[in-house]
Structure formats: C-alpha cells, structure tokens
Design a protein that fits this description.
Structural class: mainly beta
Number of strands: 11
Helix content: under 10%
Radius of gyration: 36 Å
Largest sheet: 4 strands, antiparallel
Strand content: over 45%
Order of helices and strands: HEEEEEEEEEEE
Length: 255
C-alpha cells in the first residue's frame, strides 16, 4: 500500500462530525379534562417468590479454576389462572461461567507453574413453580364465560294413514338447526419482573490432581454441583377500564 493511501486512511479516521445546536420550545399537549374513562394496566398483586434449585453442570473440557460467574434470571411464563388465584411461573437462570483450563500447548506443567487459557461456558438452569395470590392490591376482572344455546321452532305435520285427519303431529323440525352463541375476549393478566437475587454454592465433584509434574494442590475437574436460592419479585397486572378525574391547571397561586 502506498504512502498516499495510508495518509488518506488516517485522514478519514480523524474526521469527526460537528453537532449543531437546535432551538426548542415547550409545547402543551392536548389533555382531556373532567372525568375520563381510560383503559390502563392495573397492578393486581406484587409477589416475592423463592425457588430452590439443585443442578449439575458438565464442562466440555478440564477446568483448573473458576474465575467468574455472571447470572441473569429470565422468565418464559408467568400466568395467573383466572378465575382461580394460582400463579404459574416458569423460566431459567442463565449462567456464564468464565474459567481457566490447563493448556500444555502454551507450556508444559512444572512443579512451580501451570499454563492455562481462559474460556467461558454458558448454561441455562430451568425452574418452574406455582403459588397462590393471597392478597390482591386491586381485584382482577374475572373472565366472562362463552355460551351457546340452541332453539327450535314448532312445526305441524300430518299424521298420515290411521289417524284422524284433524289431528296433527306437533314437533320440531329435525332438518333445521338454530343456535345463539356469544364469545368474550377477556383481558389476560400479565407479569413484570421487578428484581431478582441469587445465592449460590458451587462445588467440584470429580476433582483430581494434574498428571505429571505440577505444583502442590493443583488439579482439574469437569463437573460441578450447584445449589441456588433464587428470589424474584413479580408484579401482576391487567388492563382495566379506570375512571380518571382531571382538574384544571394550577398556576403559581396553587400550593
């Protein structure tokens, strides 16, 4: 690459955009006044759930030591089963484990040193539970039940031979079908994850000493057993019709 080309590349990298100042002014949006009927999410309940997890994690390679573990709670299901008070929760804990793995490609082990490289391994630990909402901050709107009703019309038919001519067969018409049905599209409660806290305890269950020359006490493992206590805070909501009262604007003379 020529020197001129290098200079052009450097010049491109040194170019920075210049921000221009733009004017702005306050704008009052249109606001409906008086008693307004609105449809908004209403908090039904806020719960603290605690789950106890026990799992084994198999690493794809020998582990000299664990450097760090980052954890994150993810919910895949949170369903309030109306008209009951049972809340079903399902999800998993995502764990990213950073660890050192012995690597003789860098340097062979000695009685005073062990060469290793850093890797990471991500695994999901599932959980699920069901609990009862014992106290509602706001009562949920119970689902309306769909219904179907059949109805018939009376028909009059001759009885035929052997019956008086003035007598008729009074019945419904089997060749017709009549029905009235109604269906309701209820608002399904939903959840928000507010916070989570995890206490964990991890222990290697198959640790052995490093083969050949190695410092005292050094070893590797491929399996850990972990126990976790997972505390999560969940907010349960449902969209409901709410009447909101709004007042005229207060000015400087308002308290």
């Amino acid at each position: 690459m020529s020197e001129n080309t290098n200079n052009k590349s450097l010049n491109k990298c040194e170019v920075t955009s210049q921000l221009n100042e733009c004017d702005s002014h306050h704008h009052d949006p249109h606001v409906s006044r008086g008693k307004v009927l609105s449809k908004i999410p209403v908090v039904l309940a806020q719960l603290n759930l605690q789950m106890k997890l026990d799992a084994k994690i198999e690493f794809p390679e020998p582990v000299l030591e664990i450097k760090d573990i980052k954890k994150q709670v993810k919910l895949t299901q949170c369903r309030l089963l109306l008209p009951s008070n049972k809340l079903f929760v399902k999800g998993f804990v995502r764990k990213n484990i950073q660890y050192a793995s012995p690597c003789t490609d860098i340097e062979n082990n000695t009685t005073k040193s062990v060469a290793s490289d850093l890797h990471s391994y991500t695994v999901d630990i599932p959980f699920d539970c069901v609990t009862e909402v014992k106290k509602y901050l706001s009562m949920p709107v119970m689902p309306e039940v769909n219904n179907r009703q059949e109805f018939d019309f009376m028909v009059s038919k001759p009885l035929g031979t052997g019956f008086p001519e003035k007598d008729k067969l009074l019945t419904n018409d089997l060749s017709q079908f009549h029905q009235e049905s109604s269906q309701f599209y209820n608002e399904l409660p939903f959840c928000e994850l507010i916070s989570s806290k995890i206490i964990e305890w991890d222990e290697a269950v198959d640790r052995v000493s490093l083969p050949g020359d190695s410092p005292l006490g050094e070893g590797y493992f491929k399996t850990i057993e972990e126990k976790m206590v997972v505390d999560i805070c969940i907010k349960v909501l449902q969209k409901q019709n709410v009447r909101i009262s709004s007042h005229h604007d207060c000015h400087d003379d308002c308290d």
